Amino acid sequence: MQSYVIEGKNKIEGTIKASGSKNAALPIMGAAILNPEEVTFYNIPNIEDTKITLQILKILGCKETIDSDKICIASKNMTNKTIPKDLMHKLRSTVILAGAILGRFGEATFSYPGGCNIGKRPIDLHLKAFREMGVEIEEKEDYIHCKAPNGLIGKTIKLEFPSVGATENIILASVYCKGTTHIINAAKEPEIQDLARCLNKMGAKVYGAGTSKITICGVSKLHKAEYRIMSDRIETGTLLCAAAITGGEIRVENADAEDLLDVLYKLKDMGCKIWIDTQGITLKAPKQLKATSVETMPYPGFPTDMQPIIGAVMTKAKGISSIKENIFENRFKYTEDLVKMGADIEYNEKENIIKINGGKILEGKIVSSADLRGGAALVLAGLAANGTTRVENIEYILRGYEHLEEKLKKLGANIKVKKG
Ligand code: UD1
Known about the structure:
Blueprint: E1 2-7, E2 13-17, H1 22-34, E3 39-42, H2 48-60, E4 63-67, E5 70-74, H3 85-90, H4 95-105, E6 107-110, H5 124-132, E7 136-139, E8 144-147, E9 156-158, H6 164-174, E10 180-184, H7 190-201, E11 205-207, E12 213-217, E13 225-228, H8 233-246, E14 249-253, H9 261-269, E15 273-276, E16 280-284, E17 289-290, E18 293-295, H10 307-314, E19 317-324, H11 334-340, E20 344-348, E21 353-358, E22 366-368, H12 372-384, E23 388-392, H13 395-398, H14 404-410, E24 414-419
Parallel strand pairs: 2-14, 3-13, 9-10, 17-19, 18-19, 22-23
Antiparallel strand pairs: 1-23, 1-24, 3-5, 4-5, 6-8, 7-8, 10-12, 11-12, 14-16, 15-16, 19-21, 20-21
Helix pairs in contact: 1-2, 1-4, 1-7, 4-6, 5-6, 8-10, 8-12, 10-12, 11-12
């Protein structure tokens, strides 16, 4: 186990560059499975999740060359169609690779990713869509075997909920489909738009990404391509919030404000001054943050991944703030540690709402990450707290933030990684 040890009360100030997007990198690396020609990706973040994905691609038979943030993947000689169970369990979103393997070979074996700390996260919508496309699915306790005896057939698929992963999986599975797939009530997240742009650069025909209707016309082959993935909007939001909670001023470069408008709007509502330009986003915190209310929604609504982060900022905002979590059923675990640090938070389990009576003094404590974004929220609280905060179990945080310690240090934080 590793921990962050943070001496609080230093303002987060300066300029920093956002890394490549974790959530865009995963499906885009899946696109490499679909394309037997070599693909080159830039800006893939060096985080645990991408390392695990690369490990899986290697086991599947892909050849990888890594040079800093440039990754070349050649899947020409790939023969293995099974995602190993242990790695699948390490990273839930590897289920997205199933759509890519199915799309390429008409067959894939993987295991059920199971629940996680923020909720049940089933994959019923993914499997239902595969079935509609002519895939026969054998579900056993240990694995799921998918086979499309007549290849994948383009269909009109209506999602009951705009699931990000299911939308990505259907897109990947449909690239070579016979005919045309329409996804109705598709997720509109920027990472889906990035996946579509990347696939289209390889010769796929994906239209309408970013809207609720996505159309994929099957093609017979893809070609060699290079693609630079988008920057991480959740990392950008986290860094902006680190400045907001510490009364600092930050400029995040390589960040696209378009992807983060709802978060920027809320930070403005809390009294932050925000400047947007083509190169990045600048935020100046007020002397005293004001309370606000947030309700998580699919894009373009307030992102659930930013919910714990803004929750931490709300502990320092005068007045009663509230958060209603609509996407995941168990995403308030981090608040127990915030309360331990002195925050005044009330949780209404029935409504999945928290109310934060903000503006209290936070005191450094030993706390523990239960999940990626909840862990990042505790880091932010530690930055604003009196004394020393030890955030344990930072393995969760390392899964999704590239060089967080170095970045925060560069911005003035006193933060160290300790073993144990
Ligand atoms: C992706 C993101 C994650 C983000 C989430 C919501 C990646 C790697 N992860 O996760 O960071 O928090 O979107 O923006 O991109 N659901 C079902 N059945 C399904 C699929 C989903 O009931 O088959 C439910 C989930 O339990 C959850 C909701 O739909 O309550 C949203 O899930 P989904 O949009 O699929 O999230 P992920 O793709 O897992």
